[in-house]
Design goal:
The chain has 253 residues and is mainly β. It has 2 domains: 192 residues, Sandwich (Jelly Rolls); 35 residues, no CATH class. Helices cover 10% and strands 32% of the residues. Strands 1, 2, 3, 4, 5, 6, 7, 9, 13 and 15 form a 10-stranded antiparallel beta sheet that branches. A 3-stranded antiparallel beta sheet has the order 12-10-14, with no helix packed on it.
């Protein structure tokens, strides 16, 4: 059986530093069959990331019969009284499934990290996780004055870009304001964060079938949405791989 996630033997790797101290890498020509990876993802229905639905009645308060997106994808959570605009002004979707076929990709990224002097292991080495995103052309999506949801991850993160035409990439920031990730600010209620609260340190440039791997725990980072390229029905798509520091009980790799 064909492995859609088979690695390309013709990869090229380029290394760099953020702020002269934090290593990152570009791995070009990552998959052998990137078009087939996209075809596979197109045949699997993604789910709304976290929660989704319409916000007019305060999504997380809406009765199940009115919560049009949630009722199709997941059990309705206990009402929180918080708004959620995923599905109204933007769609932030995820594929999340398991496959042994993805194991070689995690192993390869792990070896690249070791070569960079980073001793971290996959959070879940069989997880296939995508990011699928597009947004509505609307003043609410104010990319001129805001950055899209700068956030941190558990450790080093890798993204494999799957768009032929992508002018975004991933921005890496220094946060100049108190950290906001918590109960007071939720991702799909207030995803646009004021630019004056961040210093843009680096843009990890996108390229079709390119993997970028960087320290997602040290730096806030997020999509570089700066124009209407992904406004409408053009979906920004990538695969994500997450790593973390060895924990008690983890087998050294």
């Amino acid at each position: 059986m064909k492995n859609y996630f088979e690695l390309n033997e013709d990869q090229t790797i380029e290394y760099g530093m953020i702020e002269g101290k934090s290593p990152y890498a570009y791995i070009d020509n990552f998959f052998k069959y990137p078009d087939d990876v996209i075809t596979l993802l197109h045949h699997i229905q993604p789910n709304f990331h976290k929660d989704g639905g319409t916000s007019n009645d305060s999504l997380d308060n809406a009765p199940q019969s009115e919560n049009l997106f949630k009722k199709d994808h997941r059990t309705l959570d206990k009402p929180t009284g918080r708004k959620n605009y995923n599905g109204e002004y933007f769609k932030d979707m995820r594929h999340e499934f398991y496959s042994d076929n993805i194991l070689p990709a995690y192993e390869h990224l792990h070896r690249v990290l070791l070569g960079m002097g980073i001793r971290q292991v996959p959070c879940d080495r069989r997880a296939v996780i995508s990011n699928c995103f597009f947004f509505k052309k609307d003043p609410w999506n104010d990319y001129e004055n805001n950055y899209w949801w700068p956030h941190k991850d558990a450790g080093y993160s890798a993204l494999i870009y799957l768009n032929d035409n992508d002018n975004t990439g991933t921005n890496v920031y220094k946060c100049l304001a108190p950290d906001y990730e918590g109960e007071d600010v939720r991702e799909h209620e207030q995803p646009w964060r004021p630019k004056e609260n961040y210093e843009l340190l680096h843009n990890l440039e996108p390229k079709y079938n390119r993997a970028v791997i960087f320290d997602g725990k040290k730096y806030h980072h997020g999509m570089n949405i700066h124009d209407d390229h992904f406004a409408g029905n053009v979906t920004r798509m990538n695969l994500a791989f997450f790593f973390h520091t060895l924990q008690p009980g983890d087998a050294p790799r």
